[in-house]
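Good morning,

Attaching, inline, the backbone tokens for the sequence recovery test we're adding to the shared suite. The designed sequence is right after.
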């Protein structure tokens, strides 16, 4: 059974300030994720 997006944890991006939700690729290091995308990570303040 697939997960519903409304039940996934979310965070606010440290660069753009937009909310983003958990992704499977972040499963092992969700605690350290601060940016919604690679673009925001490269353009950190």
């Amino acid at each position: 059974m697939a997960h519903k997006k409304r039940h996934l944890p979310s965070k606010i991006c440290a660069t753009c300030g937009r909310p983003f939700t958990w992704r499977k690729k972040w499963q092992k290091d969700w605690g350290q994720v601060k940016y919604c995308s690679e673009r925001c990570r490269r353009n950190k303040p």
